[in-house]
Amino acid sequence: MKRVLIVKVTSLGDIVQALPVVADIKRAFPGVQVDWAADEAFAEVVHWSENVDRVLCAPLRRFKKARRWADFKSIWASIAELRAYRYDFILDIQGVYKSAIIAFLARSSRRIGYLAPDLGERGAAFAYTGRFGPRPKCNAWHGMRISAGEALGYEIEGPAVFNLRLPEPASLPFESNGAPVAAFFHATSKDDKKWPVGHWVAIGRELAQRGFRVVLPWGSEGERLEAEQIASQLPGATVLPKMSVTEIAQMIDACSLVVGTDTGFVHLAHALQKRTVMIFVATPPSHYGIESPYRSISIGDGQSVPPISAALEAIDYVHTEAHDVTVQHGSTDV
After folding, report:
1. Which CATH number among 3.40.50.2000, 3.90.1150.10, 3.30.420.10, 3.40.50.2300 corresponds to the domain 181-332?
2. Which fold has domain 3-161?
């Protein structure tokens, strides 16, 4: 085996959690080149992986929104780059039309995708010459590792390996003054995934009493207003400026603790080996959660609002000095 293409186009959290598939393939087939096809909006995240050899990207999401000629030309040019090499295998671990089209356009006689019940869009099946087995009975992230291993004929070994290396930041958007910093990712893509503002304030006050400084990132105007509402009730809290994906990642890497809802940046915090608490309100943690002993934990049942006490217990679990362990950015649990 000389060359494999992974197709995982979106979104941030899903791409982050899929990166260990590359480490698995490289362990099983020393010397293999593994390329990755992603939407341009998330390509920088794949570039941070020390395991990915070539990142292929196109502005698919932006073209869908704006239909600009420049974006169309970029997509057209990316097809030539996609077809520059012939692949021994193409693994589409997304399972939607756009990922299937990428798999179909790339040069390979072995294009593997999900079975019909596991596809995000049933029509994506046209692109595949082979199928993964039935979706494993485990969380989505470990399931991707198992499916890839079954397709290529190797066994999964050990915890997930991310091997992320961020560019050095020119500066950070906060001054810690020697205090530990906790980042609150309060914003969500859907309102039903939100944790109440009062709950954020309560855990923020407790962390402030423990000597933490709380920082609040945001992406939209509504999220900024909510961040300001939380910060106005917390001593020493800082609402951060608008930041790029890379700048947010660098900010996360400088924090001692990350608490947030089921969002891509909280998955990234987990992959960066930060002490992380992920709060689930409307989605099942058993399928999408994070977990690593004394470092990352998911709370909630996906059907109700987790209480403040559960979040504080989780913070104690991941940030208790008695269980402090030295970790590298190389490996982590699911």
Report:
1. 3.40.50.2000
2. Rossmann fold (3.40.50)
Q: Is the pLDDT of residue 141 over 70?
A: yes
The 10 Å CB-count burial string (b at 16+, else e) for 69-106 is eebeebbeebeeebeeeebbbbbbbbbbbbbbbbbbeb
Residue 327 is predicted with a pLDDT of: 41
Residues 103, 110: Cα–Cα separation, whole Å: 10
* Beta bridge partner(s), residue 92: 7
HEC per residue, the chain: CCEEEEECCCCHHHHHHHCHHHHHHHHHCCCCEEEEEEEHHHHHHHHCECCCCEEEEECHHHHHHHCCHHHHHHHHHHHHHHCCCECCEEEECCCCHHHHHHHHHCECCCEEECCHHHCCCHHHHHHCCEECCCCCCCCHHHHHHHHHHHHHCCCCCCCEECCECCCCCCCCCCCCCCCCEEEEECCCCCHHHCCCHHHHHHHHHHHHHCCCEEEECCCCHHHHHHHHHHHCCCCCCEECCCCCHHHHHHHHHCCCEEEEECCHHHHHHHHCCCEEEEECCCCCHHHHCCCECCCEEEECCCCCCCCHHHHHHHHHHHCCHHHCCCCCCCEECC
The answer to whether the CB of 258 falls within 8 A of the CB of 269 is yes
The pLDDT of residue 60 is above 90? no
Spell out the domain ranges in the chain. Answer: 3-161, 181-332
- 244, exposed or middle or buried, with CB in 10 Å at 0-12, 13-18, 19+? exposed
pLDDT band at residue 77 using 50, 70 and 90 as cut-offs: confident
- The yes-or-no answer to whether 3-161 and 181-332 have a common fold is yes
Q: In this predicted model, what pLDDT tens digit does every residue of 261-288 receive, in sequence order?
A: 999 999 999 999 999 999 999 999 999 9
Q: Is the dihedral of CA 127, 11, 288, 141 positive or negative?
A: positive
Tell me, what's the pLDDT at 72? 66
